[in-house]
Every structure is written in C-alpha cells, then in structure tokens.
From TrEMBL, chain A:
The keyword NAD does not apply. PANTHER family: ABC TRANSPORTER ATP-BINDING PROTEIN ALBC-RELATED. Keywords: ATP-binding, Nucleotide-binding, Transport. SMART domains: AAA (SM00382). SUPFAM superfamilies: P-loop containing nucleoside triphosphate hydrolases. InterPro entries: AAA+_ATPase (IPR003593), ABC_transporter-like_ATP-bd (IPR003439), ABC_Transporter_VariousFunc (IPR051782), P-loop_NTPase (IPR027417). Pfam families: ABC_tran. The lineage of its organism: Bacteria, Bacillati, Actinomycetota, Actinomycetes, Streptosporangiales. The keyword Transport applies. Residues 5-230 form the ABC transporter domain. This is ABC transporter ATP-binding protein. It comes from Herbidospora galbida.
Automatic annotation (TrEMBL), chain B:
Keywords: DNA-binding, Transcription, Transcription regulation. Residues 5-73 form the HTH gntR-type domain. It comes from the Bacteria. Pfam families: GntR. Gene3D superfamilies: Winged helix-like DNA-binding domain superfamily/Winged helix DNA-binding domain (1.10.10.10). InterPro entries: Tscrpt_reg_HTH_GntR, WH-like_DNA-bd_sf, WH_DNA-bd_sf. GO terms for molecular function: DNA binding; DNA-binding transcription factor activity. It comes from Herbidospora galbida. Transmembrane segments: none annotated. This is GntR family transcriptional regulator.
UniProtKB/TrEMBL annotation, chain C:
This is ABC transporter permease. The keyword Lipid biosynthesis does not apply. The keyword Repeat does not apply. The chain crosses the membrane at residues 21-41, 53-74, 86-110, 135-160, 167-187, 207-226. Keywords: Membrane, Transmembrane, Transmembrane helix.
Length: 306, 124, 231
C-alpha cells in the first residue's frame, strides 16, 4: 500500500479540551475512506490538521511524504470541502469555478459545469444568496471537479435532499472509477455511504476507535434476541455492547458475535441473530455512557454489564 | 446489499447466480468492476475483490486489456458446488423448523409436493 | 510567481466594489469640502487646505482589512498557503498604491489647472511638494498609500488571528503606548528636538522615505501574524 497520509501520535488541545488524543493511522492511495464519529469527536479538527489549516499540538503528520503546513507542493494535491466553508461576499458561483480552475491543477471545467447543471446551481447567483442545499452542492461540485489526489468532504450533504445526495454518490463513484484518488468522506449518514467506502475510520472523543475495511465490519456485531437465559448463554464469553429488554425477551448487541459456530449455537439456544448495519455498530460503539433506566437495574443486568 | 456478509462475497454470488441461471453463458464477458460498482452503488475495490475471487476459483478468467469472461465448464462446477451446500443451507433449517412445530416426515413431504404443484414448479 | 498571480486574482471579483467605494467616498468628501469652502468663500483668502486625502486613507485601510478577512478563509479553503496569500496581498498593496498615486497626480494636475477648482480649495495637492519632480511626487503619494494599505492588512491579520478582541486590544495597546511616549517626550522636554528633526527632513524623506520603514514594519508584523492564523 502506498501511503498518502501518515499520522503518528497526533494530538490537538484547545485549552483544557483535548480534541484529538494520540491518533495514529495511514491513508492509502486510491481508496475511499469513511471518517465517522459523533459531533465533536474531532473529525473536522483532524481534517484541518491534515490539510494544513490547523496546527497540531503534538505528533507528526505527513501528506505525500511531507508536512502539509504551508507546503504548496503538498497542498496543490489536496482539496478540503468544508461544510462551513466561507466565501467572499461578492463571489458568485461562477467566480468560485473560475478561481478553482486556476488553483487546482486537475480541475475539469466541463465536469464542473455538468455537475452544476445536475444540481441546478445558478452560475450567476451570489454564493451568499444560495440556500443551504445549494451551498452544499457547490462544495460537492468543487470537491469532485478539482480531482485532487487527496480530497476531503466534511459533511458535504447538509441541506441536500435524498435525490441530490444520490446524485453526489453516483457521480463520486463514476468519477472515482475513471480518476482514482484518495477520498475521505466525513458523514453522519452512515447507511448511505457504507457500501461506498472501502475503509472506515471511527473517531470518538478524540480517539481513533476503528480503522478497518468496511467489508470486514459487516456482520462484525449482531443483535441476539431471545429469552434472557438463552441470550445469556449465547453472550457468555463475548463482548456485549448493549442490552434491551421487553418482558421476558432480551436483545443483546454482541461484538464479534458471528464465529463459525455462532449460528449453530444460536439455533440450538433458540436465539435470533440479526446482523448490525455499520450505522448501528457505530452508534453502539460511540454511545455516550447514559444513566441507567430503571427497567435495567435487575440483578441479571448488572451481571451482564460486567 | 445485506448487512451480514461482506459485499465482495455477495457480488461474487450475484455473478455466480447469473452463470447458473444462464443469463451469463460460458465465454460471455462479465460486466467490468466499474460497471458493477456503479450499478450496485458500491466501492469499485470491493467489486474487484468479488470478481477476483471468482477468477482465483476458476469461474472467470481474465483477458488482458479486454476484461473478464466466464470460464468453460463454470456452470457445471458451480451447480455441483451449490448442490453440495444445498443440504446445509436449506434442508437443515427446514427440518429444524419442522421439528420445532411437530411436523412429521410424511406431512413435510406432502407439503413440499403440494406447494410445488401450486407454484407450478414440480421438482419431478 | 505564477501561483502568486493566481492568488492575486482571488480579489478580482471584489475590484468594482473596492474601487467604487474608495473613490466614491473620496468624491463625497470632495463634494462636502467644496460646499463648505464655497459657503465661506472670500476671494482674499488665497488657497484653503482641506486635508481631504485623509478620507481616502481611511477608506483604503477599511478596504484592505475587509479584503483580507473576507478572502483569507476562502483562499485557505482553496488550498492556498498563508505565505502565498500574504505575498499576493502585499503585491496587491504595492500595485494599488502606485495606481492610486497616479490617479492622485492626475487629480492634482487638474486641481492646479482649474485654479484649485475655481474656489481656492486644495484637496488633492500635497503640502511642501509644490516644486517636486514627477517621480518624487508619485512616491509622495504612493508610499503613504502603501503604509495605510499595509496597516489595513495588519488589522485584518490581527482579526484573523485573534478576532475582534485582538484588534481592539491591539489598538488599545498602541494608543496607550503612543500616549505614554508623548507623556515621556513632554516630561523630558524633547518636543523641540523632535520638531527640529522634522524640519531638518526634506518633504521627500517625510512623505516617501521614512514611511517606507513603517510600511515594512507593518508588513513584517502582518506576515508573522498570518502564518499561524486559521480560518
């Protein structure tokens, strides 16, 4: 694997707050990544540091084999589409395209105008007069048409309706096929992109908690539903992430639940197994500690929570 | 795509199904990785992994610069393999459920026969 | 260099506004001054100096500040480095100062040709430089413009780095320092010496010499600030 980005012990502090805590990973060439995690997990901060827009408190970052900060050779290969990107007051959509054409080496004007037509972006409209959805469409268009070898999309879909989002995913896939590059897609709409991304980076409270192939994460966790003793029997020796109950019925979310014998065991115990989608898995892995609701204070639960 | 199994396996299986049901005949060209990715809205690398698995199993073969093709004898081999798995995949769960509901051997056989008649796909 | 040129062009869409506001407001100041001079006109007065150019300087500061704060976050988003951005804006400051100086030279010529607009009002002419050669005259206009433009850029970078609080705190600090310096000069009775020094300087040195150092100081300060600024 040719690494496009490597980060070692990356840490970012804002006063008392640690936004990124000793994060290390590598991004490979020609791969689509999903950068997932709850709000405030540190995703945007991470992308800002990788694109030289923010400064790490400690740790090393290398992008195309060099530090990205103030490095024109590196940054000319990088495009960062921010959800909160600010545009000059007097800029129209056309101005944005003109400047992007001059600043991104691989910019494809025809592609950009095709995308603008698909998203129904009015070229003459002032950017500050665009709706939230159109602003997102503008960012998406710039990010795709720039064809930068390393492209970051930070929640690019805000205000986009499902049809426009589908258009974005389709255009991304089609263009990626013809012009492979490294794409990092930060999003909360995990179910929508789970088939699109090749690898998943999950950040929670500044720490990297997952760095795996998206395909390997399929079926990584299961929801096991059945009578309490049966589920206890099935869950024994496995990592339980979550537990719900309804009268005598228990649903337990179990990590690494589908070993070779798991299905047979579940059948014998009369436990229903249901694979977790990537989105559900992320929710379970990053759920903040909650106050325990009264129904789950029974002795059996305390044991399960061990 | 299902959540419980890797997508690349599902892609491989979809192509296998097309070969078994005859929609992809032997020596026919298989859709490219990018076509598969675009159609199923999945990552091209994942689609490629599925296709490559079929290549390594000898179901497909690669013609450099042209694409992937269905290997000779692939259909027969796939059918053979599916038959081997049929018992474990379909008969096993069927018998387990029947036992749970107290359906006896004869009753089960009768159900299979009459259902087959209804859908017009008699197995005879 | 090519890259810097492309970054300079980020400002192009704003030019109609920048030029329009700058010269529009100067024209308004000119009109008001002219009205005021006309109202108090007495042919025996000779030429009235209005110091109207101060308004042009004020607008130039504001325009530079706005331009920096508006376009920097966008430039960063387009993968431009802070260094490239700052070099481009410094280049813009020089070009703009020279162009404005040329316009001012022209307006000064018109002013003199029309007998000070027919009402004895000196609006565009520079003091002490009545007999300067054209090059020195151009510098006399361009260098002070460069100073105020860089001051505007500096204020913009202060804002980018530390926000409104940073700008206000810096201004407070500067005024405090200037006040203390003035107090110190008064206390040590050095005003006469300073006055003599100023009188010893040629108008060229005062308008086009020493201010170069001030502009350079502003430029260095702005560069150091922007290198750690985030969008």
């Amino acid at each position: 694997m040719t690494a496009v980005v490597t980060a070692h012990g990356l840490t970012k502090r804002f006063g008392d707050v640690t936004a990124l805590d000793d994060v290390s990973f590598a991004l490979a060439e020609h791969t689509i990544y999903g950068l997932l995690g709850p709000n405030g997990a540190g995703k945007t901060t991470l992308m800002q540091i990788l694109t030289g827009q923010a400064f790490a408190s400690s740790g090393n970052v290398s992008v195309f084999d060099a530090p990205p900060v103030e490095n024109p050779a590196v940054l000319s290969k990088v495009c960062f589409v921010r959800e909160s990107q600010r545009y000059p007051h007097v800029y129209t959509v056309r101005h944005v395209f003109h400047t992007a054409r001059r600043l991104f080496a691989n910019w494809d004007d025809t592609f950009a105008h095709g995308l603008a037509a698909d998203f129904q972006l009015p070229a003459g409209r002032l950017v500050r007069g665009l709706s939230r959805g159109m602003l997102s469409a503008l960012g998406v268009t710039v990010g795709l048409a720039a064809r930068a070898p390393l492209t970051f999309f930070d929640e690019p879909y805000l205000g986009l309706d499902p049809a426009a989002r589908q258009l974005f995913y389709d255009r991304l896939l089609a263009d990626y096929a013809g012009h492979p590059r490294t794409v990092v897609l930060s999003t909360h709409l995990i179910d929508e992109v789970s088939d699109l991304v090749e690898r998943v980076l999950l950040i929670d409270r500044g720490r990297l908690v997952l760095d795996e192939d998206a395909d390997d994460l399929r079926g990584r966790a299961v929801a096991a539903t059945g009578r309490a003793e049966a589920v206890d029997g099935f869950a024994a020796g496995r990592t339980e992430l979550h537990r719900e109950r309804l009268s005598g019925l228990v649903r337990s979310t179990i990590l690494d639940g589908l070993g070779p014998h798991a299905k047979a065991l579940a059948q014998t115990l009369n436990v229903e197994l249901e694979p977790l989608s990537l989105q559900q898995l992320v929710v379970r892995l990053t759920a903040p500690p909650t106050t325990v609701p009264p129904t789950t204070t029974a002795p059996a639960d305390r044991e399960a929570a061990r | 795509m299902d959540n419980d199994r890797p997508i690349f396996l599902q892609i491989a299986e979809l192509i296998e199904n097309s070969i078994i049901d005859g929609s992809l005949v032997e020596e026919a060209q298989v859709p490219s990785t990018n076509e598969l990715a675009a159609f199923h809205r999945i990552n091209p690398a994942t689609a490629a992994k599925g296709v490559n698995q079929l290549v390594s199993e000898g179901t497909l073969y690669k013609r450099r610069g042209i694409g992937m093709f269905v290997a000779g004898g692939a259909r027969a081999r796939l059918r053979e393999r599916r038959r081997d798995r049929f018992t474990e995949q379909y008969v096993g769960p069927l018998l387990a459920e029947a036992r749970k509901l107290g359906i006896g051997h004869d009753e089960l056989m009768k159900m299979i026969d009459s259902f087959g008649a209804v859908v017009g796909r008699d197995l005879g | 260099m090519n890259r810097i040129r492309q970054v300079v062009r980020l400002q192009m869409p704003a030019w109609p506004q920048i030029v329009g506001w700058t010269w529009g407001m100067t024209a308004v100041a000119f009109g008001i001054n002219l009205l005021s001079v006309m109202a108090n006109y007495d042919p025996g007065d000779g030429v009235t100096n209005t110091g109207g150019l101060v308004s042009l300087c004020g607008v130039a500061i504001g325009m530079a500040t706005v331009s920096v704060t508006q376009i920097f976050p966008y430039a960063l988003g387009m993968s431009v480095t802070r260094r490239e951005f700052y070099l481009a804006w410094s280049l813009l400051a020089v070009v703009q100062s020279v162009v404005y100086a040329l316009v001012l030279c022209l307006l000064r010529a018109v002013e003199q040709a029309t007998g000070y607009w027919g009402w004895g009002m000196r609006f565009f002419g520079l003091p002490f430089m009545d007999d300067a050669n054209p090059v020195l005259l151009l510098l006399g206009y361009a260098v002070p413009m460069l100073v105020v433009t860089h001051l505007g850029i500096l204020l913009g970078t202060l804002y980018l780095r530390w926000g409104t609080t940073g700008v206000l705190a810096s201004l407070t600090l500067t005024f405090t320092a200037l006040g203390l310096a003035a107090t110190l000069i008064t206390w040590t009775r050095q005003w006469d010496a300073i006055g003599r020094w100023l009188l010893d300087q040629s108008p060229t040195a005062l308008l086009a010499g020493w201010p170069v150092l001030v502009a350079a100081a502003f430029a260095v300060g702005g560069y150091r600030l922007i290198r750690r600024a985030t969008a």
